[in-house]
Amino acid sequence: MKKIILSLALISPLASATQCALHSQYVQASYQVGKQVAGKAVAESQQFTLWRTPHQVAEQGLELVEVWQQLSNQQIRPIRYFQTPQRGIEYQPSEVQGQQDWSTKYQLVSDDFIAKMTLTDEQGDGCDKIQHYQLVQGDTTIELAWLVNQKLVSAMSIAKPQLTQTLTLGTVDFKKAQIQQQFALWDAYQTTDYADIGDNEGDPFLAKMINLGFIEHGASGFYDANGKALGGGHSH
């Protein structure tokens, strides 16, 4: 798997792990999602952007934005934003099914899952330190290139006999003001509580949401541009 080494623009790559972790709390990272079927690349590769602050994470596709907020009691509150109508659906932590692990949201793959993998290689120092992991589960091989001190996936692949899915890190920015501004822009969208949707069928946007149904939150650690989970729950 391609090895990608990135350094933070505003901090020495030889900085301590603590300095790197603090500086990379505010992140805008673009990812490319790829797919190969029977060894041949599928043309419709997709992209999404990971936005991160210490207590908010967003995965932004072309239209859909999934936001997770870490509350003071450590519960996770999801918000789903739709960019064209500038509308959003807010959920309460109690409305989210399944295990909620903040590390899964914050860094796309959970600490618990990384702990199950085998470290195969390590190189670089400070902010450039990258670790390579592998995990074999039945006929599935998962490989991860992990920027450990930035808590960012550099590259990841999930390989099955006839299907390989890949996630590759592209550009990364650490501009705190710009990242905060993007979250503020989404926060200004008109939102509706999930529990109130059924009482607002006269609203064309909400009526459409009822007809489409909803994707269950927390299914996996990384998603395609449409918010659909990749890899079938590999991160729990």
Automatic annotation (TrEMBL):
Keywords (A to Z) from UniProt: Signal
Domain of life: Bacteria
Signal peptide: 1-17
The protein's name in its UniProt record: Orphan protein secreted protein
Species per Swiss-Prot/TrEMBL record: Pseudoalteromonas rhizosphaerae
Upper classification of the organism: Bacteria, Pseudomonadati, Pseudomonadota, Gammaproteobacteria, Alteromonadales
